[in-house]
Write a structure and sequence with these properties.
heterodimer, A: 337 residues, Rossmann fold, two-stranded antiparallel ribbon, 13 helices, 36% helix, B: 384 residues, five-stranded mixed beta sheet, 12 helices, 39% helix, globular, binds thiamine diphosphate, binds iron/sulfur cluster, binds magnesium ion
Chain lengths: 337, 384
């Protein structure tokens, strides 16, 4: 059966996350959630951190969830999942699972804020303890729900409401942290990096992740029209550009073995990704060329490191001239007003 | 005076005793993180588990915030869940304590009460419990090791009662009880198990055929109504606690009450407090009574729910109530003082109040006498 058919079948005629939620048009999160949950064969139990996904899907007395779902707070989602998993183990052992013993898969969703930053300790603890669950970080690179504040995942140079661009400021001037690497450092069975624009990649990673007897972590790029500053309709293109420019590579670490999932046939310059988004528009102003060069170099150096980890040939990258690109770049394509 | 022990009594610390009660109930899940003076509770429990006394899933989490979070997850999933903490641990949990109450997760938590930093201090006062006083959790305070044990046996029945469904904190004074051996009688395993019964929450998350959305987002239109239900549950808890206390009292032949009345018959001056210090005050009351003074003690067992009607009834005819808070409230008056002022409003009873025992400073009988005599400073514990 094709993957698409299987995903459709797993929805049993009901979307795990139904329509009628209040996420923005073009938001990357709901498609990621549906792809993840529909790629799992067993019944699922979903745990959700505070953030856009949670707030927009669970406003009492309405719910968009057609699967068991629970939220408690912002920073503790991995700990809550640990508790659910412990309950499942205990009741399974005692033969007292309510409604009878079934295989279930526990899936946690947290935004980058709830995962890279405030929830990092709970995540680390849960990964270290070895609970069997899948944690999916939908990474849109800022605290979107509270109004686009910077997070540890916000890329270098991005304009956010707490790292605003001004006459003496160029946005966030720190590198984003590499959470996927941090997760991999826990020596758990499965760690993967995927993208909301690559549903096949995401779906196949989920399948492998939930087959593991232990914790699995997925870091998934999730576009945000509002926070990134692009038109709703171009979200997938923006994320695809992140893969094709090597800005957000797709790979997995299975039992410590790194494997590259996607190698673009034609690598595009990072500016092609940046210029699609209002949050980077200021980088294209004359005088900021050095920043674009620095970003390109950073991406290339990370990519080479990844290739070495994946035991892939470190081939020459196409020579990109960011300055030239910058000059060519008009107003950011599809940038939101 | 030789300690009179009941037949079959044995020596255990409060920490060991409460852990023993928990192990007898044999909960499904026990997520915990160590902190003094709670450590004897989790260590004893772990030891009992390592010898097969319980088959509980112990989750040694990486913080108290995660302990309470895992507890909420586990309880909502459908598993009987217990935890234990003190002081900074309870402070770190505070956010999730509110959530546990709001989500109506009937978790039982053993607390060894301890002062809050700064300065860092590991000894008893009640500041930690006071910090979460309005969270919607039930808080029951013991005077002795025996009582702490008995409360721990009864707590699940209160927490899990369909009219309540709130977390219950079984509180005992750090070190004074958690680390002090006292003779106590343990209830037989079968009786404890039968008394506790089976865990049953409506619509557990693990029942995947009954799809529910838990931990919802409720705004101006529903938040008040949902919070109001917690008040109703606390009100019901007054009856449930009384019923559970009475039923267990029958089983073990010891009296239990949300409010202990000691020498209130004809009393004119009554001390009102919680916890182990009641033992000292009882001795002082005995001395003063022998000297012909009309004094008594009213000990609060159930801090939440606060049994205001029962308090008014117990104090009818009393001239003066002296409230002793084992926590401070810089800038205002501490909890028991304020709540007793409200409870006694219009009754014509005079009210005096002292803060005592901060950071483990013991209240000695001479201070008890000074308190009754009206000679103690506001902060009793500030006296050298
Ligand atoms: C302890 C705590 N601190 C802060 C908040 C406020 N808050 C709620 S959601 C959120 C941002 C969420 O960001 P992220 O996890 O990236 O998810 P997104 O909204 O971007 O999807 C913040 C800061 C909170 N709810 N709890
Ligand atoms: S603000 Fe961004 S992340 Fe939040 S719902 Fe809208 S598009 Fe999605
Ligand atoms: Mg975010």
């Amino acid at each position: 059966m094709s993957r698409l058919k299987r995903i459709a079948r797993n929805q049993h005629g009901v979307q795990p996350l139904g329509g009628g939620h209040a996420l923005c048009q073009g938001c990357g999160a709901p498609a990621i959630v549906r792809t993840v949950l529909s790629s799992i064969e067993t019944p699922v139990i979903v745990v959700n951190a505070t953030g856009c996904l949670e707030v927009a899907t669970s406003r009492y007395p309405i719910t968009a969830w057609n699967v068991p779902w629970m939220h408690t707070a912002f920073e503790n989602t991995a700990a809550v999942a640990s508790g659910i998993e412990a309950a499942y183990k205990a009741l399974k052992r005692r033969g007292t699972i309510p409604g009878g013993d079934k295989d279930v898969t526990i899936v946690a969703f947290g935004g980058d804020g709830g995962t890279y930053d405030i929830g990092l300790q709970a995540l680390s603890g849960a990964l270290e303890r070895g609970h069997r669950f899948l944690y999916v970080c939908y990474d849109n690179g800022a605290y979107m729900n509270t109004g686009i504040q910077r997070s540890g995942a916000t890329p270098y140079g991005a304009d956010t409401t707490t790292s605003p661009v001004g006459s003496v400021s160029l946005g966030k001037l720190q590198q984003r942290k590499d959470l996927t690497a941090i997760a991999a450092a826990h020596h758990i069975p499965f760690v993967g990096q995927s993208s909301g624009a690559r549903w096949q990649d995401l779906s196949s990673k989920v399948e492998r992740a939930v087959a593991m007897d232990g914790p699995a972590f997925l870091n998934v790029m999730s576009n945000c029209p509002l926070g990134w500053g692009h038109e709703s309709r171009v979200g997938l293109d923006v994320m695809k550009a992140a893969q094709d420019s090597l800005f957000w590579p797709l790979y997995e670490v299975v039992n410590g073995e790194y494997k590259l999932s996607y190698r673009p046939r034609k690598v595009i310059p990072v500016v092609d990704f940046l210029k699609m988004q209002r949050r980077f528009a200021h980088l294209f102003k004359p005088g900021n060329e050095a920043l674009l060069v620095a970003i390109q170099e950073q991406v290339e150096s990370e990519w080479r490191k990844l290739l070495r980890l994946c035991d892939e040939p470190v081939t020459e990258l196409p020579v990109v001239k960011p300055t030239e690109e910058a000059e060519q770049a008009e107003a950011p394509v599809g940038a939101a007003a | 005076m030789p300690v009179k022990t009941q037949e079959g009594a044995q020596l255990l610390t409060g920490g060991e005793a409460v852990a023993y009660a928990m192990a007898q109930i044999d909960p499904d899940v026990f997520p915990v993180y160590p902190i003094t003076p709670q450590t004897p509770i989790i260590q004893t429990f772990a030891k009992l588990a390592s010898n097969g006394k319980t088959t509980t899933e112990i989750v040694n989490v990486e913080s108290e915030h995660s302990a309470m979070s895992a507890a909420v997850g586990s309880a909502m999933a459908g598993a009987r869940t217990m935890t234990a903490t003190s002081s900074q641990g309870l402070a770190l949990m505070a956010e999730v304590v509110y959530i546990a109450a709001g989500m109506r997760a009937p978790i039982v938590m053993a607390v060894g009460n301890r002062a809050l930093s700064a300065p860092l201090n590991i000894h008893c006062d009640h500041s930690d419990s006071m910090m979460i006083r309005d969270s919607g959790v039930i808080q029951i305070f013991a005077e002795s090791v025996q009582e702490a044990y008995d409360h721990a046996v009864m707590a699940t029945r209160i927490a899990e009662h369909p009219d309540v469904m709130l977390p219950v904190l079984v509180c005992q004074d750090g070190f004074t009880l958690t680390h002090s051996e006292e003779p106590l009688v343990l209830t037989p395993d079968e009786d404890v198990k039968a008394f506790a019964g089976k865990y049953k929450v409506p619509l557990p998350l693990l029942d995947v055929d009954e799809v529910t959305t838990k931990g919802i987002f409720a705004l101006q239109d529903y938040y008040t109504e949902l919070r109001y239900q917690m008040n109703a549950a606390m009100e019901s808890a007054k009856t449930v606690i009384a019923d559970v206390f009475a039923e267990y009292s029958q089983l073990v032949d010891r009296p239990f009450s949300m409010l202990e009345e000691y020498e209130l018959e004809g009393a004119e001056k009554v001390v009102f407090l919680m916890g182990s210090t009641a033992g000292t005050i009882k001795d002082v009351v005995d001395e003063l009574r022998a000297e012909g003074e009309k004094v008594g003690l009213l000990r609060l067992v159930s801090y939440r729910p606060f049994p205001v009607e029962a308090i008014r009834k117990a104090l009818a005819g009393v001239k003066e109530v002296i409230v002793l808070d084992r926590s401070d409230a810089p800038g205002s008056v501490p909890s028991l003082h304020a709540e007793m002022a409200a409870a006694l409003y219009g009754s014509g009873i005079d009210l005096r109040a002292h803060v005592f025992g901060l950071g483990g400073r013991e209240l000695v009988p001479a201070e008890g006498r000074a308190i009754f005599a009206g000679e103690a400073p506001t902060h009793v514990a500030l006296r050298s």
